[in-house]
Amino acid sequence: MKYSYLSHLECPKCSSIYSAEEVQQLCQCGSPLLAKYRLDEVKTNIKREDLQRREKSLWRYHELLPVHTIENVITLGEGYTPLVTVPKIGAKYGIDDLYIKDEGIIPTGSFKARGAAVGVSKAKELGVKTLAMPTNGNAGGAWSLYSAKAGIESFIVMPKEAPAITRVEVHISGSHLYLINGLISDAGKVVAHLVKEKGFYDVSTLKEPYRIEGKKTMGYEIAEQMDWKLPDVILYPTGGGVGIIGIYKALLELKELGWINEEKLPRLVAVQAEGCAPIVKAWEEGKMESEFWENSETNAFGINVPKAIGDFLVLQAIRETGGCAISVSEESIKNSQQEVASLEGNFICPEGAATFAAAKILRENNWIKPNETVVCLNTGQGIKYPESFEVESAVLEKGEAIIL
Amino acid sequence: MKYSYLSHLECPKCSSIYSAEEVQQLCQCGSPLLAKYRLDEVKTNIKREDLQRREKSLWRYHELLPVHTIENVITLGEGYTPLVTVPKIGAKYGIDDLYIKDEGIIPTGSFKARGAAVGVSKAKELGVKTLAMPTNGNAGGAWSLYSAKAGIESFIVMPKEAPAITRVEVHISGSHLYLINGLISDAGKVVAHLVKEKGFYDVSTLKEPYRIEGKKTMGYEIAEQMDWKLPDVILYPTGGGVGIIGIYKALLELKELGWINEEKLPRLVAVQAEGCAPIVKAWEEGKMESEFWENSETNAFGINVPKAIGDFLVLQAIRETGGCAISVSEESIKNSQQEVASLEGNFICPEGAATFAAAKILRENNWIKPNETVVCLNTGQGIKYPESFEVESAVLEKGEAIIL
After folding, report:
1. Is residue B353 part of a domain?
2. Nearest residue of B to residue A224 by CA position?
3. Number of structural domains, chain B?
4. How far apart are CA A82 and CA A102, in angstroms?
5. What would the pLDDT profile of B255-274 be if each residue is shown by its tens digit?
6. pLDDT digits (tens, 9 = 90+) for B60-74
């Protein structure tokens, strides 16, 4: 019994094959590479019921993850996050079975921990000493902390507008932090230059093949937590899109394993902000790729990604599942954030709130039917965005009483 | 098979018995009340192996929790937090088997979620409409969010120096927030007055009997996650002390159930800050209760509690387990926080860092032996304290390169 059934890397664009036993970045054709597993062997050796007694982390799926030996696993206990019903929001929106997959309940308070855990573990296994990445904040926090645990040096470049707490995460981990007066795309150029000059491992979104393997486990978990019966719709806040690509990859793998037997996969929905909606524009225009979105802006900072390198994979995932792409207003994001907290107790991040705003619209225009099972994916803790809300409050002096 | 085997409430001081089927606060003698279960029936009906397939939350122990019907359970998926080895810190301190129980990986990013989940669920079951509490911040955030989910109105009073993000948690949940120019003890007086005037449910630390039932599940989890073999030492950052009292209660219950068979329970260590160490002072003086600590001050804000109502129970727990109480300096707290993040990747809160600082000292003076198994309990996410670290960083302009 092997710990991992990783086989090789494959280009989804030109079908080139690469070895997974040495460091790889993009395919020579410019596309991201995807990890392939010996799924037939997994099917023979593991049954989905075997998972039940395993640890409550994403490493319960280790046969389907790219790390060959457990000694290389760098873990802070990430994954197997709560999937919880939100009946009051469901009633308000007119959706009978509405769930939140709450990725705030994870190390670093953001789903970026999944990609970092698997990506850093594999980097360690491949002998990487130094890595570099551009980030909108949360990924930088996660990768710097996991790199610290792995003993890998890291260089992190983020927009100076990124959530302030993520700077502290990078700083306290001992990583090298650089702010940039620009967007993640500008940070990406800085990293590309640094990587070229110094030969560091480039862990930009989808430029290394393993972050997505961490993210795909969200798909496994949704299936397992629903007792292998899939929801009808999954809504995902889409910046770089690794999560939605990963969830789709996971569902296809589960299908091949025979662990899910429904013909119809969940309809995957890419949710963006009106101020940065390149995927939505491409979707509406029926295109296979997106164009760079000029002057992008949104308070849902994690999805301020003007051009995603995996855009064609995101569009493919929503097309092939009968999903869609939709953008939502800043006001609706803020309203949803407030609504979910005050009715359901989840203090979600703006990116996660965007999926609720989208679910509301999609129900209103009947794209979502009332009796469908719907999962909104919240990608992080609201507490990472203290600047989102101004709180005014009375200040009492000692001995003063509350008068109602 | 009952969902809960709750029997009644009992005073640990004067042994008075109270019904658990109606709202109770303190015993008439002034002591907190503790929940008692029909452990003989639990022993007959449930085996510890039955837990393995259960959900990854503290509700896996529902027979030993006070909520009678699952419909009253208010959950955001709290509990079953990671118990992870920290070998690099262990090597640095000279402790072979050092673990972190990471309570940051929980809704609201603080272990206060445990008490809130169980406390609010039971309040709902008892028909409570409005509750009030003083807090150092994190408990207020947790109780207001869980109350929001339960549809219970809440009044939260916290020092204006409490972590700012906790105000946002209270605000966004729709709770009533009051700041006070003073300490939690001053906030407590405000709440006591409000409760007396309005008849609200007082959920101050240990003034209602069920918060501790949520907190005790940390003890169950440490035992279960270690395959029912207990560690030698558990270090706990002690403010109100509910967690350490709860862990001790849990261990005694497990012993009675026969789920743990070691004669020797872990030595429980109450860790405080030098600027607020009433329990340590009482411990060193061999007293049964602590005295009010004047002009208390510490950056580990959650343990700035000058006089805990359950102090005698904390002292009892450490005395009966052969534990101790120890205070640590602000500098050592900050150092440990940095050390744990940069070596192990856990961005822990100052309160949690205090337990590492204490473990270091206790190993140095050989109170902890090198081959002992030690658990440091981190009570929350470092990200809730953005003000803890000032981060200086170069700001690049677009097109500018990193020069190494």
Report:
1. yes
2. B55
3. 1
4. 6
5. 999 999 877 899 999 999 99
6. 999 999 999 999 999
